[in-house]
Structures are given as C-alpha cells and as structure tokens.
Amino acid sequence: MLLASNIVAEAAEFSWNGFLGPFHNVILHYPVGFVTMVCLLEVYGWRSTSDELRKIIQFTLWLAILSTLAAAMLGFARASDGGYNEQTLDAHKIYGIATIVLGVAALLVARVALRPEASGAVRWGYRLVLLTTFAVMSIAGHKGGDLTHGTGYLTRNAPPLLKDLLGEEAPEKMGAAPAEQIEPQPGAGGEPAKPSLFESVIWPALEKKCVRCHGEEKHKGDYRLDTREFALTPGESGEKPIVPGKPEASYLMTLILMSEDDEEVMPPSGKEPLTVEEKAAIRQWITEGAAYL
C-alpha cells in the first residue's frame, strides 16, 4: 500500500514540461545548422542551380522549419518553469516565431525562385528573405543566450567598435556603484586602500558561478544575487537567503555547504562549484554585513 501511494505521489509530481524543456537546448542547434546550410548552398549555386541542388535546398528548408517548430514547442515547455526576465523572454519568443514564419516564406519563394526560368528580381527576393531569416534567427539566439547566460553573453567580449554598432554597453558591477563614482579611500600612509572582500573575491565568484542563473535575465527559484536588495529577499523557498551578520541563519550558506551530490546544493551538480576558499570568504562577508561594495 505504501509503495502504491509513493508511486501515485511521484506521478503527481511529474511534469512533462520539466522533463522536455531542457531538450530545447539540444534541438535549437538543428535549425541554426539547417538555415546556415541553405545559405551556403545558395552561395554554392550562385550562378546556376541544378535540379539536384534545388531539391536539396528545399528539403533542407523543410528540415529547418520542422526543427524550428520543435525547438519552439520545447522552448515554451522550458519557459513554463518561470524564473526568466519577461521582457527578454518575450523578445526571444517573438524572434523565434518570426524565424518560423520567415522560413515558411523562404520555402514558398524558393519553389519559384529556384526554377531555371525565374527572373533575377525573384531570385534576389528569395535571397533577401533567406538572409532575413538568418538574421532574425541569430537575434533569437542572442536573446536565448541572454536568458541562459546573462545579458550580453554573446557580445560581452566583442571588440569595442562592434559593441558600439550593436548598442551594447559594458556591464557594470551589479549591486555596486559604477567604478568612476567610487572615490578610492586612502589607506595607511596615504596609499590607496586594497579592494574590499566583495570586490576582490565575493563578486567575481558570484558573477562567474551564481548570477547566470540568479541575475537580471534569469532568476531560478525566484531569487537574484545581482543586487543586495534582491540578495536579501527570499525566493520560492521562503527562507531568508542572507541574514547580515549571521551566516549560520543564512539559507545561502546552507545551500553552498551541502555535499556536491545533494539535489539542492548550489551551484547545482554539473556546474562549477565554489571553492573552499570562496565558501569561507562568503561566510566572512556575511558576518561582516554582506555589503555590496
């Protein structure tokens, strides 16, 4: 009887969205590959297109459309879990759906444009639709990268000129004042003071290992660490994550001190864990008041 009740309870907790959602990250690579392949095939057949090449291009466009549909459905399943920036998520959805629509348009135009008797204007119209499909798909991928890896994931290491063209600003340290607004305080003997514990250890560790899932774009468990206000606010668990001056009462310390095979450990299994030194530094930081500067 107990076994049966456990099976029923586990079945009730099972979520198809939770199971299928992560496969979005696998399937999304297929439409990227197929659309890119069509573009390359079009370049290959720039002067003239044989019957065989025309069939291959149209077949690949079909694969691109079907794989994009599959990626979109799995994406909606993944988004149902919540924990994402709504504005960025909506943009990702819009560009993803637009990729499907443009892919269908490219296929329809290709059926005419790839014929030997097609005019140059029709052929160039098809190429424009194909290029637009590739561009919109790239933007959708960029927004997806922002959702899973934080703002500017694809462009944060781009050359300054490219950042200017894209309108990307260099990310400032979240939760603290911009560097130019912080006046360095002289230390003993008039020498510049050493960087604070937060600047030198805590924020680099949080930014690298925690903020990607608990930041502005993505906030798993309805919890964020990118500002002090959010860091002190309980997430879905309802537990107080950080209690300034009391690391033993801070749920964050409980999570990061769990064994690596525990289901609730943070960062979760498979992610780069915090080092012993980083955990000790976080304890000290909370003891000293958990200041974000």
Q: Note the total helix count.
A: 12
Euclidean distance between termini CA atoms: 57 Å
Describe the global form: elongated
List unreliable stretches of 5+ residues.
Answer: 170-185
Helix content: 55-70%
- Characterize the largest beta sheet: strand count, sense, and whether it forms a barrel: none
How many distinct beta strands?
A: 0
How many structural domains in the coordinates? 2
Give me the Rg, rounded. 25 Å
Structural class by helix and strand composition: mainly alpha
Percent of residues in β-strands: under 5%
Order of helices and strands: HHHHHHHHHHHH
Query: Would you tell me the overall average pLDDT?
Result: 83
Describe the structure.
- By secondary structure, the protein is mostly helical.
- It has 2 domains: 154 residues; 109 residues, no CATH class.
- It is built from 12 helices and no strands.
- The protein is elongated, with a radius of gyration of 25 Å.
